[in-house]
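Whiteboard transcription, Tuesday session. T.W. wrote the structure tokens on the left side:
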């Protein structure tokens, strides 16, 4: 789903964002399956506690092929400007360390919904702390939103997933 007028005509989404840690973000691709699948499944239990109620993701029995199909969908949605999934990557792109999601408002709050995660090994570490600081700045600087809603469990997030799921769905969602 993409809401009419969600993004201004002619908006070009960022192709890369460098982080002070030396990591970077770029739109995820179907071809990232070899680094995405181990990242997701290696952190699956924690990711389910974050995204399971909202998205039913990641399922316990997800296969590499199902992940590839999901990444192809994300890649197509980015091209169509329906939603965006950015891979958080180590230098050299040998490892995917998390993702950032930028979606149209499915609930009544704000004009975009933004969330992110890191692999278990990065929880509480310098990369996660950097993302908590940099993602809100990047959204304000590089994206055309007036009231993006950051969804997650701790600051700088505006609301928890539980609070978000308690909101009514937006018209047309």
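and on the right, the sequence the group agreed on:
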């Amino acid at each position: 789903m993409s809401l009419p007028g969600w993004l201004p005509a002619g908006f070009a989404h960022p192709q890369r964002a460098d982080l002070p840690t030396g990591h970077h973000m770029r739109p995820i691709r179907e071809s990232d399956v070899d680094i995405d699948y181990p990242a997701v499944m290696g952190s699956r239990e924690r990711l389910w506690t974050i995204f399971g109620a909202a998205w039913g993701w990641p399922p316990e029995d997800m296969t590499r092929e199902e992940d590839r199909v999901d990444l192809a969908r994300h890649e197509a949605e980015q091209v169509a400007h329906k939603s965006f999934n950015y891979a958080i990557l180590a230098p050299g792109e040998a490892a995917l360390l998390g993702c950032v999601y930028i979606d149209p408002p499915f609930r009544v709050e704000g004009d975009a919904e933004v969330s992110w995660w890191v692999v278990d090994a990065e929880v509480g570490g310098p990369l996660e702390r950097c993302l908590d600081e940099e993602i809100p700045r990047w959204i304000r600087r590089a994206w055309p939103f007036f009231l993006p809603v950051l969804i997650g469990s701790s600051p700088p997030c505006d609301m928890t997933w539980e609070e978000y799921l308690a909101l009514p769905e937006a018209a047309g969602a």
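Someone added at the bottom: The mean pLDDT is 94.
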